Amino acid sequence: MKILLINGSLRGDYSSSLKVAHAFVKGMVEEYGADTEVCEVALKDKRIDHCHGCFVCWKTTPGQCCIHDDMDELRQMVMDSDIIVESFPLYFFGLPSKLKAFTDRMISYVQEYRGNPGDEENHRFLHNMRYPELEKKKLILVSTCGYEVTDNCYDAVFAEFDRICGEGKYTTVLAPQGGPLSEQGFAEKVARYLEKFKEAGHEYAREGCLSERTWNKLQRPLLGHSTFEMAINMNWDNPEVGPYGKLV
Fold first, then answer.
1. Is the model more confident about 117 or about 28?
2. In this model, does residue 159 exceed pLDDT 50?
3. Residues 6 or more apart from 173 whose CB is under 8 A from it?
4. How high is the pLDDT of residue 248?
5. How far is CA 80 from CA 1, 39, 137, in A?
6. Which residue(s) pair with 175 in the sheet?
7. What are the phi and psi torsion angles at 21 (to 5°)?
8. What does the H/E/C string look like for 41-87?
9. CA 151, 231, 87 angle in degrees (round to 5)?
10. Rounded to 5 degrees, what are φ and ψ at 37?
11. pLDDT digits (tens, 9 = 90+) for 107-116
């Protein structure tokens, strides 16, 4: 089993989403066994040009992008992996710019649009995958947001991936209140909090999906409403108080 963990945060190793992704992947590795190979890549360190919208990858050299940068390596890493985990924070209700550029450049992996109305049976929207082996790969989106809950915050992200991958063809692992996950003052509480994501990784490896009960459990925030509200307001209102940590 080969797992590719793509860190889409511009904060790199300091990413709150990455902490959640590490816990989830650790659970999968413990379940799959010692032979599991995990490859982690930080997009912030990669040279990824923006898609030019030239459609060369559809018309002139099908499946091959005319831009040669680090996406050549990244696309091959995707092809060599069984499970792709994309870890990212929610930026203005969408993907961080580096991950969006990565996603746009993956357009060579879908077939060109020829006026078809869509595939209702497979819940795919307008495009089919160019390579059959891509249908066998599993995609997991791991993300934290800065809001108290994740409800309605990810609608735009879901809409995009529903159309790229097909509705129900990928798994989401979401966590609200991403800020406190990186604060040392909450270290013990965060460690206990992340255990449920590791347990979810175990379940995913066993079952190939997450139960509704587990998914709902992951949505429970780290902090109670009053504590979170106090922390976040102190962060914005007092420039001498670091994010969240000084309240503990």
1. 28
2. yes
3. 20, 21, 24, 140, 141, 142, 143, 197, 200, 210, 218
4. 33
5. 10, 11, 10
6. 144
7. -60, -40
8. EEHHHCCCCCCCCCCHHHHCCCCCCCCCCCHHHHHHHHHHCCEEEEE
9. 45
10. -105, 125
11. 999 999 888 7
CA 51, CA 106: separation in Å to the nearest integer?
9
Written as six digits, the tokens of 85 are 């985990």
Q: Where does the pLDDT of residue 192 fall: very low under 50, low under 70, confident under 90, or very high at 90 and above?
A: very high
Q: Per DSSP, what are the bridge partners of residue 174? A: 143
| Helix axes 187-207 and 16-32, enclosed angle (nearest 10) | 40
CA of residue 50 relative to chain centroid, distance: 19
The pLDDT tens digits of the residues spanning 123-140 come to 566 788 899 898 899 999
Q: Quick one: tokens of 70?
A: 């680090």
Q: What is the Cα–Cα distance from 170 to 186, expressed in whole angstroms?
A: 31
How far is the C-alpha of 38 from the C-alpha of 16, rounded, in Å? 19
More confident: 186 or 111: 111
Please state, in angstroms and as integers, the Cα–Cα distance from residue 27 to each residue in 15, 24, 49, 209, following that order: 19, 5, 34, 13
- pTM recorded for the entire structure: 0.91
Structure tokens, 31: 């379940």
3-state secondary structure (DSSP) of residue 175: strand
Provide the 10 A C-beta neighbour count for residue 131. 13
Residue 207 burial (C-beta neighbours within 10 Å; 0-12, 13-18, 19+): exposed
pLDDT value, residue 100:
97
Q: Closest Cα to residue 20, out of 192, 113, 177, 143? A: 143
